[in-house]
Specification:
Shape: flat
CATH architecture of the largest domain: Up-down Bundle
Number of domains: 2
Number of strands: 0
Strand content: under 5%
Distance between the termini: 51 Å
């Protein structure tokens, strides 16, 4: 049997932001989030997905088990478990594991390649669990930290990474559907079905849904999440090389959102730098 003191300490690990165990646990949670996002990005590279299928599967299920333990503990130790389950944090806990369990169940509704692809990229929503760390940092900046600059910088990095990861993954899903392996195979099969026997087969070319023009191979930009990440970092930093661009309505909406977030985050970063300079030149205490 678990004694009362141990049970109380375990509860504090999941409920008390001022407890050292809570901070250690959430540091591990953050590491799992970053690791999960990294494996998701690498898994979208076709060559790596084929070569390291088992490694990616093991990494995913270790991550799912960990996040399941975290979600169950958060619900169990919450003062009002049912209310927590339907709260913002509870919904994020469910979202962090639901896509993987839906794929495991292999239901008829999730057997289509598009749905499977969506569930895979939906794992990027685990990055929303970083919002709890950002909230804890904000509380710490207000309550315990004399100079909140470091906490503000941590919050900035968390928000930047969340936007960066979700925008890259969303762009890969929306734009990459045009020339994914399944789209290319089904398009080629449709052409072959109507091509008279004996005639030279015509190669299928994905089409720009807005202009109606064919998309040549060198213009198929978003073939993996890492390539989408390059586009995202260029867009968020307002560099705008123009070497990669979306062609779908959904892709352009994602691009617009990413640009706006980039501008907002740039303004926040300037404010943090300004406060840092104020501290360096005028002392540790910042004016309210």
């Amino acid at each position: 049997m678990v004694d009362v003191a141990t049970a109380f300490s375990l509860k504090r690990v999941f409920t008390d932001p001022h407890y050292a165990g809570y901070r250690y646990w959430h540091t591990i949670v953050m590491l799992f989030i970053f690791g999960s996002c990294g494996t998701l990005a690498l898994e979208s590279v076709q060559d790596l997905a084929v070569r390291f299928t088992k490694a990616f599967d093991w990494a995913e299920w270790i991550t799912v088990i960990f996040f399941t333990i975290d979600a169950v503990a958060n619900i169990f130790f919450a003062p009002k478990p049912l209310r927590y389950l339907f709260s913002f944090w509870g919904i994020i806990d469910i979202i962090s594991v639901a896509p993987s369990y839906l794929m495991l169940l292999n239901l008829t509704a999730v057997r289509s390649t598009k749905v499977i692809r969506l569930l895979r990229v939906a794992r990027a929503l685990r990055v929303l669990k970083l919002a709890r760390s950002a909230a804890d940092e904000a509380d710490g900046a207000e309550e315990h930290i004399r100079n909140p600059i470091l906490a503000n910088l941590k919050i900035y990095v968390i928000i930047f990474f969340a936007v960066f990861m979700m925008s890259s993954t969303a762009m890969y899903f929306v734009e990459g559907l045009l020339y994914s392996d399944d789209a290319m195979e089904s398009g080629q099969a449709a052409i072959d079905a109507v091509t008279p026997a004996g005639e030279k087969p015509v190669e299928f070319m994905p089409t720009d849904p807005i202009s109606g023009n064919a998309i040549p191979e060198d213009k198929r930009f978003f073939t993996s999440i890492p390539t989408a990440m390059w586009w995202c970092i260029v867009t968020m930093t307002t560099t705008g090389y123009g070497d990669m661009y979306p062609v779908t309505v959904g892709g352009r909406l994602i691009a617009s959102f990413t640009m706006l977030c980039g501008l907002i985050l740039f303004a926040i970063l300037l404010n943090i730098i300004n406060k840092t300079m104020m501290v360096l030149f005028f002392g540790d205490k910042l004016p309210d």
